[in-house]
Design brief:
Blueprint lengths: L2 H14 L2 H27 L4 H13 L14
């Protein structure tokens, strides 16, 4: 089953649920979404030096030390 088919099936199933079960389903979906987000954050934080690099990037952005993405060469 493709992702599009899975989304369609999920939406159809949600549409058929009674209100109380729909509430539980929504809470579970939010839990799954948050869990994925947390796992991605943890993965980034395991990269040596990531936090320092991120802080420097935020300082650079705040100071206007940025490059327009349209000016970045495509062959690099």
């Amino acid at each position: 089953m493709t992702t599009a088919e899975q989304r369609k099936a999920a939406k159809e199933t949600l549409d058929e649920l009674p209100s109380d079960q729909l509430k539980v389903a929504v809470e579970f979906l939010r839990y799954l979404k948050e869990r994925v987000s947390e796992e991605a954050t943890e993965e980034l934080l395991r990269i040596p030096g990531f936090e320092e690099d991120m802080e420097q990037a935020e300082r650079d952005i705040a100071a206007g030390r940025v490059t327009d993405w349209r000016k970045v060469r495509r062959d690099v």
